[in-house]
Amino acid sequence: MALAESANGVVINADATQAYADLRILSARPTQADEARVPHRLFGYLPADEAGSAARWAAAARGEIAAAHAAGQLPILVGGTGLYLRTLLDGIAPVPDIDPAVRAAVRAMPVAQAHDALVRLDPAGATRLNPADTSRVARALEVVRSTGRPLAEWQAAREGGIADRVALRPLILLPDRATLMARCDARLATMFDGGAVEEVRALLARPGLNPDAPVLRAIGVPEIAGWLRGAWERDEALARAQLATRRYAKRQYTWFRNQPPPDWPRATEPTPAQCLPLLLLL
Fold this sequence. Notes:
two-stranded parallel sheet; mainly alpha; 6% strand
């Protein structure tokens, strides 16, 4: 926000969970005071009954970036969903819509059976995947079954990326791990006391909400829902949510340390010299 104030900037969300309107507290979205201080975009724009996707977000982000440039503003992308950022910069594979019958059949298969089928149809793809990774194995199998081409071939034909059309100044923050985990634990306790429970209660009471809706899988929602349904006590719900958050933080830390290009700067805390970007990635 300080960068946005000093550089006529607009903060654009790049976090999948903060896109949901119903989870301001539990997703640690900017407060209403934050949003009044500097312009914020793509925070809380998805209703609970809709599923977000990297392609949908990237299209919206391209529009917001273009609007910021047209207004003479600095677009500042902030978020931790690596797939979203990668899709925006590098584009997305133009995979056709999957045949619903193929998808249903694949998703009904045990992961071991799906992986065996993938070995026969796309052996190179099967080798790259963890045989126990249910979602990725299913995705690879449904693509090759539905289109007749391995997923890797589609991914090699990515389109729609903007990396070659923007001046990019990335910055990856990798704070001290012990401090990060302590902050995660403290934040969950504050969330529980500050309205997160009421957010989840309202979600569970929403008529017609699909029990498989992605918003219900957001960290903290299943843990609070279990408490509200009597499966465990409040202290256990908090401990479960803290553990899930720490595990997620470790995965994110590893991803951002290893997956982005090696020449992207990493910092424990940003310095003033680093905070002069045309596009800031946190």
